[in-house]
Design goal:
The chain is α/β, with parallel strands linked by helices and about 325 residues long. Helix content is about 50%, strand content about 15%.
Length: about 325
């Protein structure tokens, strides 16, 4: 199979038929073999009914996954990636802001140009999105480029992306990490990452589910988590053990100095207050205790690193 199109959605019943017809037309024009995987992320409208109808019409093409409740975009992509069978996997949003006409060129960049991942770069955003979405996005992308080291991407969060099949089968998208899939791919060893300017259309139906500064703040917190996991996820002792050793060493030297100073004063019959009357003594002991705790945290972190078996355990009500 040439292409798998993975579409996470939440309450997009008005746009699904038009989007699927558009995808089918593009695939037919370019003679692609394909499948379309809709992941219904707890929608409360008629989205699942429409997906079911499309599946009845073309069961060999249309697949569907229905969550019992709303989990988020990352879990939806994770489950879609597990089901995808195409040599190239295309992701896009269901709101018709991403154009299926971009699919042939994205496919070519993966198959012929040798990219592992190609991310869309939304053009005409001033026409498609409000300032409450575009300004946080610009700040977020600038920070992500700096932290991830992927200098050639301008829009990490664009829903329209293309992947080599090996990429989606070897990365784990959890929490709200869909914003950082290029970073996840890079950490997994897929560093041939490209970008393609894509047409970004104005939303035709409903309202955006991802707006404002809340997603901006959450994105930064997730970026910090991903940076830490990417840098120290498999070696937490390198950070906690290092900090613990430094703090313990400073505390130990300080305590030794206080004790040596007391002994020197006693040997020379110089009046000196009790060691326990000095605040520096307690500061030194506190640093030694904190250093020990940090060291043990690093040790325990090494034991349990990346071993959570239920992190991607999602309740799926029905599969087509």
């Amino acid at each position: 199979m040439d292409i798998s199109v993975v579409i996470p959605l939440y309450n997009e019943d008005e746009s699904i038929p038009e989007l699927y017809a558009w995808i089918a037309r593009v695939m037919k024009e370019h003679h692609f073999t394909y499948e379309v995987i809709f992941i219904n992320d707890g929608s409360t409208d008629r989205s699942w009914e429409i997906i079911s109808e499309l599946n009845k019409q073309q069961p060999e093409v249309v697949k569907g996954i229905k969550f019992r409740r709303n989990y988020g975009k990352s879990p939806a992509l994770y489950c879609g990636f597990k089901e995808a069978e195409g040599d190239v996997v295309i992701t896009m949003d269901a709101d018709l802001q991403d154009s299926p006409d971009e699919i042939p060129e994205l496919y070519k960049m993966i198959k012929e140009d040798g990219y592992d991942l190609v991310s869309g770069y939304k053009q005409n955003r001033s026409q498609g999105d409000p300032l409450s979405k575009t300004i946080p996005t610009k700040l977020f992308n600038a920070t992500t480029r700096k932290v991830s080291g992927i200098k050639n991407l301008h829009d990490f969060n664009c829903g329209l992306k293309a992947y080599r099949k090996d990429v989606v089968k070897n990365i784990e998208v959890f929490g709200e990490m869909h914003r950082f899939i290029p970073y996840l791919a890079k950490n997994a060893g897929f560093d041939k990452i490209g970008e393609k300017p894509v047409h970004h259309q104005k939303r035709q139906y409903g309202k955006s589910k991802f707006m404002g500064w809340n997603r901006f703040v959450n994105g930064y917190l997730d970026l910090m988590t991903l940076w830490f996991l990417g840098t120290f996820g498999k070696k937490p002792m390198h950070v906690f053990g290092f900090l613990g050793t430094i703090m313990f060493f400073i505390g130990f030297v300080a305590a030794f100095w206080i004790g040596a100073d007391k002994l020197w004063c006693l040997a020379h019959h110089i009046p000196q207050r009790l060691v326990t009357d000095s605040p520096y003594f307690y500061i030194a002991l506190t640093m030694m205790m904190i250093g020990t705790q940090l060291f043990l945290t690093g040790f325990l972190g090494d034991l349990i690193s990346r071993s959570s078996s239920g992190r991607n355990d999602y309740q799926i009500e029905e599969t087509l």
